[in-house]
Every structure is written in structure tokens, then in C-alpha cells.
Amino acid sequence: MQLSLAVSLLIGATLFAICGAEDPYRFFSWNVTYGDIYPLGVRQQGILINGQFPGPDIHSVTNDNLIINVFNSLDEPFLISWNGIQQRRNSFEDGVYGTTCPIPPGKNFTYILQVKDQIGSFYYFPSLAFHKAAGGFGGIRILSRPRIPVPFDDPAGDYTVLIGDWYKRNHTDLRALLDGGRKLPNPDGILINGRSSNGFSLNVEQGKTYRLRISNVGLQDSLNFRIQGHKMKLVEVEGTHTLETTYSSLDVHVGQSYSVLITADQPPQDYYIVASSRFTSQVLTTTGVLRYANSNAQVSGPIPGGPTIQVDWSLNQARSIRTNLTASGPRPNPQGSYHYGMINTTRTIRLSSSAGQVNGKQRYAINSVSFIPADTPLKIADFFKISGVFTPGSISYQPTGGGIYLDTSVMQVDYRSFVEFVFENPEDIIQSYHLDGYQFFVVGMDGGQWTEASRSQYNLRDGVARSTIQVYPKSWSAIYVPLDNVGMWNLRSEFWARQYLGQQFYLRVYTTSTSLRDEYPIPKNALLCGRAAGRRTRPL
User: Fold this and answer.
1) Which of 160, 156, 152 has the alpha carbon at shortest distance from 292?
2) What residue intervals traverse the membrane (predicted)?
3) DSSP code string of 172-220
4) Can you say whether the dihedral through the CA atoms of 60, 63, 65, 68 is positive or negative?
5) Which of 212, 303, 388, 502 is the most exposed place for a label (fewest CB within 10 A)?
């Protein structure tokens, strides 16, 4: 293992030397194991990283190179993906099966990531085999470089808060249900940083302000987050500094990340931290504790209530989240200097979800295509020009209205085009979508059917740039995407059972150029599998 690590580090240094990188390196060594966990009071098989559940935080600064050596001590293949990290010019490192060969049991792989031109709050998670239902996730924070102004004072503390729904069953049992063509039951509870009711606590001091980086790492439920007696000032969403709007509670849809500031301005005692499910027939609730120094009273009384099934409340809150146009992002120039609303779109892509049976088994689809993995990661097959693995254009740019069918769906789009995506949700559940490799501009969302006339209500000035968007029941959401990152990028439902059963596809952002300015070559240490097994990546 030591030799493997040394070789991996040499490879990483060589790759970034070729590309002219001079930014700092941060090194991580992770051992992924099974271990007993008891988040809802019963023993389960969890996935631990260095013995931790949730896994360790990644702390970094804009442009840092992250060298993460992952040892797979499980009994099945494993991959980690990095939600919101854009992997500029380097989709080989994205850690989903369409881009990266799984790490075999007993083996290791060194991810070489650069958080190029990014700031903000994100998370990582295991992407294969429904492992996400067992843990293996953790927070990622990217701080601004020292000379880049941040639009608020340094907080007294900076905390990761991972919220999500949870099952008492092991991930293997849940996966067996899905593989058998069945739907999953509703989750059993909600966790905050891996703990259920009052298991999580946050210590604060009177008069000081703290930053909470809240991510919904769950499997399906939107969650409402609130703190008894305290307001939350939203300051950042998935890498964008926002207008500093104050909320008493915040809807965090599955897959999304938010940063809020809270000030300990109440009498010194203990207060409930609450996360509860949204848009569910049975409301699940869990609590933590905000504990003041010198607290003179424990939490007591009723748990503060929050919204439950109200769509308009959530929609109006979502529309109120806007970009701070004058604040710097990862670079000194203001975030508003990119005028996305003044750029003509080159294509409109409409994506509509559906659910149904194929060969007597439950499946989910986008534009009627239910994704099935190929025998070789798509990006690796693309690099080696292996035919027969996928077909560009195997999913339509518009809903077809036909029945669900199975295919390895890949949509091809041109590098440097500027595309309007419209997510259409004809179903009666809330949905959430994530696009790897990108931040996109949220320009609109509303109930009913999207039409071209819907563009009249678009926000073309200060829509928030993010990587995960919700689509309300029987509603639509629209985004603008500048396709400036060559690669093979996963567009997926964050409702994890739906993703597992086909509600995803890959966006092939294509150019004929072979310049390093447009895309890095395959990493020298890339694992090769499927039809690429036995090939060589490239000469040293």
C-alpha cells in the first residue's frame, strides 16, 4: 500500500506539473470499512471512513489540489463522488460509474482533484450499489483565498451539519428490494450528523456568530431546518454568495447545500435544532441541541413546528434566494460581472420524469429512457474509442410521451454552447436534480406546464448559481447552463431509489479539440475495467 501511495502521489504531481499548477496540495488517506452503527437505536452495518460515521470533513481553499487515497476494505467495489465539485476539464475523477472504474475490494485508488475557481459548501458520498444508505458521506468546504474579500465577517465557529432521512434496514436489504423490482418503503427517521433525537449538539457563546454548512445527504425527503428562537441569515448556496436574507426556517431539498449565519443572541440556555420532512404523508422529525455556554436550562416544551406540505411556502422561499451581485466569488471580480441573462441560448432541452414497469419491475426514466449502466465506464470507453458501449443521442432533447424503455442514455451537447434546461415534473412528488461538472443559473420555477411564454417570468439578473435544483409536484424549473467544461457529466435524480432504477443520464459535452486547455488526458493512475481492461492509460 505504501508503494501504491507513493506512485499515486508521483502521478498526481506529474499531472498538475504538466498543466502548470502551482497551487497548494492537501493529502488525505482514507480507509473505507464496514462497522456497526446505531443511528436509530438498532444495530446496522454502516460504511465508515477512518472509523468515522459520517466521514471526515475535507477543508480546502480555492484552487487547492486534493490528493485523496481511498483504500476499499469492503467486500464489494466502491466509488466516492464529490457533489458540487466541478472537476474542471477532468470528468475522469468524478467518481460515478459513467466516468470512473470502481475500486475493487482490497485495493486502493488515489483521486486527484483540484477545486479550481470554487468556494463554498459541498459534500462527498458513495455513488455505487446503494452504499449511500449506509454512510460513507461527509462535508466539503472550500474557503476563499486570503486576499479575496468575503461579504461577511469571519464567524466564531464554522460547522458542518449533515441532515438526511434514514432507514433501519441495511443498505443490502434496500438494494435487494430495488433489484427485485419493488419500491422502497418510507424512511424510518431523520439524522443530524449521523445521530437521531438530541444526539447532536452545537456549543455556542453568548453574542457570537456561527456559520452552519447544511447539506441534505439523505435518500429522498426534502427537509425543513430550524433552530428554536433563532433566525438564520443565508449567505452561500453551493458556491455562490447570496443576498443575506433572514429566515426562521429553511427548506433543504435532497442533495442541496446551504450556508447560514446564526447569532447566539438569546438568553443562555439550550434550544432545539430541528429537521423535519416536507411533502410527506407522515412527518418525520428529529432534534439536536444548540447549547449556550453557562446554559441554565435544558431543552423543554414542544418542538418548534415548521411547514409540512405547503408547496407555495417553499416555492416563494426558493424564489427569494438570489445572488449577491456585488460580492466576490472565488475571484476578486463581483459575481454579477457575468451577465447570464444577456446571452442568447443556443438550445432548449426539456426533461420530463416518469415512473412505470419494465418487464414487470419498477423503473424510472427521463424522457422515457431508463438508464442502465454499460459494462465499461462511458468516459473511459470514449477516451479509448471503444465502440458499442454507448451511443451519443440515445436520449431525446424533448419528452417523447412514449413508454419507458431501457438504454445507456447519453445526450451530446457542444462545448461552449449556452443551453436552457427545463425540468418538467408531471408527478405528484417533489423531485431534485443534480448536474455534475457545473454550476447553473436558476432562472425560473412555477406550477403547471412550462411553455415558451413561461420565459416572461424568468429572473435574468440575479438568479442563484448552484448545482442541485428542486422541481415541485406537477411543476417545472428552468436553468441556464454555460457548457464550458468538456467531459462526460452525470445528470441525475437525487431521489436515490429513482436514480438507482434509471432516472439519470450522461451529458457528453463534446469538442473535437485535443488541447489540454479544453480537457486533461486520462489520469496515469486511472483504473481500467470492462472492455478497457488490459489497456494502458498513457506513457509517463
Assistant:
1) 156
2) none
3) HHHHHHHHTT-------EEEETTB-TT--EEEE-TT-EEEEEEEE-SSS
4) positive
5) 388
